[in-house]
Structure formats: C-alpha cells, structure tokens
Amino acid sequence: MDYQEIIDRKRTIVNSPIHPLPADTLQDVIRLFHQRGSKSRDEFSKMKNAIPGGLQHNLGSSEPFSLTYSKTQGDKIYDIDGNEYVDYLLDGGPIILGHHFEPLDAEVVRLISEQGPAVGLTHENERRFAEEIIKLVPSVEMVRFVASGTEADTLAIRLARVYTRKKKIIKIAGNYHGWSDQLSLSINFPGTGPLDAEGIPKECYQHTIEVFQNDFAGLARAFEQNRDDIAAVLVEPSGGHAGTFLAHPDWNKTLRDLCDQNGSLLIFDEVVTGFRLALGCGEAYYGVRPDLTVFGKIISHGYAGAGAVGGPREIMRFCHPSSVDGHKAFVAGTMSANAVMVTAGYYALKFIQEYQAVEKAAAYADRLTQALNDLFATRKDLPFFAYNIQSIIHVETSCYNGISVVENPAARFSEVVERYTVLQTYALALMTQGILPLGDRFYCCLQHNEASMQKTLNAWEYVLSLIPAS
C-alpha cells in the first residue's frame, strides 16, 4: 500500500463516525479480562503500593490493570495466570529473533557464568559488536555505546553541536527521541508541545525548533529563519512512532538536501527501525544517508543497557575521552558497553543475518497485513485497514493519529483522546483472545507462524463481531 493510499484511507476514517464498543459489550470484555487475569490484577494492586501508578513500562497498559508475565518462548508470552498470548508487543520492537532465542541466550549465559556481567574494563565483544555495526551500516565508521536510546539521542545532539559549532536542533513533532529535557516536545502526538513535560523549564527548549511531519514549507522556513545556526535535524526515518505518523516518500531526501545546503547534520533515530527495516537500517531501506545514527533497544535484542551512536570518524572522534583541538562531547556511563549488552548485541546481529530474521519477519507481516485487509473488507460499514513497513504493522481503526490539532487544539485533542480510548478497548478485547499488541502497532518476528496468524485473525474477527453494524 503506497503512501497516498494510506493517507487517503486514514482521512476516510477521520471523516467517519467512531465505532466504540457498546457499553454493555465493553463491560463484558472487561469482566472477561478480570476473569482471565486475577493474579495479574492482585500483583498490580501490590505494585501500586511500591511503584507510582503501578506501572513502569511506558509500552504497557494499566487499564483495567497491567499484565505480569511469567515466561516467554518464540512468539509467545505467558502471564502469571497461565494465559498464552501471541506477542506483537515484543518489548517495543527489539525481539526480532523471537523470545528466548536459544543460540543467543546460550552466549549470554556463557559470558555471565565464566566472566560476569560488568567489571568496568573493556571486553573484546565491544570491538566485535562495533565492527559488526560498521560492516552492516554504510554511514557508520565508528560507534560509541551508551546505556539507552535516550542517552544516545542526547549524545548525538551534543556531537552535532561540537562538530558544527552551532546551537539549534530541529525536532519533528510526533517523533519520539526519549525523555531528555530538550526533546520532550510533542513526544506522543504532534502539536502538543510541552504537554507531557511538566517539571522542565521552558528555557530548556530555547534551542529546539519544532516542525511538523511532512511540512516541507515549515522545514524550509525553519532553516531560513535560523540561518547558520542549525546544528542538526533529528528524525525517525519512518515517521513518528515507527511510521504511525508516516513519512512522505520525499521527506528524508528533503531533510538530507536542506542539511547539506545549510551545513547541518542529519541524525536518524533508529532505536526501533535499526536492523528491523533492513540490515543496513533505515538508511538502506529509504536510500538516504544520515550523518549520525542513533541505536537503542534493538541492538541488544532486549538485553538491558542498549544504546549507541554511530557515524563517520570525522564526527565520532569528538566523543569523550578523545579530543580534537581541545573540543570534545562529554559522554559517560558506568554501565555503557557492559559485557552482557555487547555480547548479546554482537551475537544478535550474527543470528539476525544467519536466520534471515529481517526478511522472514517482513514476509510474515506482509501476509498478515493482507489477511487483515481481507477480513476488514467483509465489513463494508467499517473503514478499517492495515499497512506495514517491513515487519511493523499498523492497524488503523479509530485513527487517532490522523487528527490535526493545529487549528482549535482544545477541541481536536479531545477527539484524539476519544479515538485513542476506542483503540485501547479494541486492544483489550484482543488480549482476552490471546493477542498482545502495542495499541494499533504489531511488531513481527522470526518465530511468528501460520498458527499465530490464524489466532490473530480469529481474535480480530471476534473484535469485529463486538461492533454493531451501521
């Protein structure tokens, strides 16, 4: 499905009535969720006494309570009540080989049993892992590891400022780059600005310029109005939230051209898309070469402490502890490049190539997307549809992401909330049928198979049956 068809079909949903579950039907779904998850419900109650809100994972849902998992295997995850789910959450994307992938886990277990997880000295897998990334990603000549995607974005910006001697950065609204002060603008939805950023002084944003996704005129204007002072543009190459706010086919190329014309760096945030869209990451998939690439959770396949910045030697040499003519970008972190992370990352990349995980996960997503669209077509009264970017599937039902809040933001944002709430009720219904999505997003992995697909389609058929015909 091409870009324009996706945009047109999103517009159709936005211009159509929302299809909430009837109140009594929703209560039945909630009751079923409670019946299936009594142990998770009790654990959530205990969590709330020790942990603010009872939930620390921003990918999870706490309504009516969060699930607590007990084990994983392949494309399955099991909660403490013994319920099995086909997992499309996959920790927000990094688990492309599937859960508990034995060849990978064996290498990590061997490391821990023989050497320990972290000692503060260099481990040879740091070099091996960096060399593997350099081999696969054309724009990368050197790599600096940190402990999270948020840290990696912070370092990338700092490097850009040291290298260019400029201050300002352009952030695309609705693109997510972690929770550092200067990037906490429109982090969940374009046009919301600092809505989610209480506790951050407004002065922290004085050098951050927001531009809307695919606003070519606004992008050109931002460069014109801040001529000679744009250090970098930071962007998810797929569009915000892994393609939820989809990038126009010419968007990345335009970013590249304007950065070249203005002596600015183009930074691709590939925390989600790196080694999922292609072995060469988003730059290979979209055919646009960034100056710096930010990596996150996917590079260690879910093992903790994952983050990195990669780029040409000319820029990366400014990373602390090295210095160029007295200039350096300070970066630190006791757990950065810990032995567990770099070992998991090195072998994960090896196994992703060996088992053709990128290609096979994408092929499964292609088949499931087509099957979902065939199923949705049986309900002529519902404009639902699915599209995928390689192994990342987006299922559009209420299409909260198609609402613009630029004009009349208060009224339109209330509609966003309403549409998002409906989406969450569909996700809840799917969970009662043993399907675990990330809202309207479905990440696919090497281990998803035809049985998983059939279970997914059966669950969606159940959800459709709950929506009255109109």
Features:
470 residues, alpha/beta, Aspartate Aminotransferase, domain 1, Aspartate Aminotransferase, domain 2, 2 domains, seven-stranded mixed sheet, four-stranded mixed sheet
Short description:
This protein is α/β, with parallel strands linked by helices. It contains 15 helices and 15 strands.
Topology:
Blueprint (H helix, E strand, L loop, with lengths): L2 H12 L8 H14 L1 H13 L18 E5 L2 E4 L4 E4 L14 H13 L9 H13 L5 E5 L2 H16 L3 E6 L34 E5 L3 H10 L4 E6 L4 H4 L1 E2 L4 H12 L2 E5 L11 H6 L5 E4 L11 E5 L1 H4 L22 H16 L2 H20 L8 E5 L2 E5 L12 H24 L2 E2 L4 E3 L6 H17 L4
Parallel strand pairs: 3-14, 5-6, 5-7, 7-9, 9-10
Antiparallel strand pairs: 1-2, 2-3, 4-11, 10-11, 12-13, 13-15
Word description of this protein:
This protein is an alpha/beta fold and 470 residues long. It folds into two domains: 3-97 and 356-466, Alpha-Beta Complex (Aspartate Aminotransferase, domain 1); 102-354, Type I PLP-dependent aspartate aminotransferase-like (Major domain) (Aspartate Aminotransferase, domain 2), CATH 3.40.640.10. It contains 15 helices and 15 strands. Strands 4-11-10-9-7-5-6 form a seven-stranded mixed sheet, with helices on both faces. Helix 13 (357-376) runs parallel beside helix 15. It starts with a helix and ends with a helix. The model has no long low-confidence stretch (mean pLDDT 94).
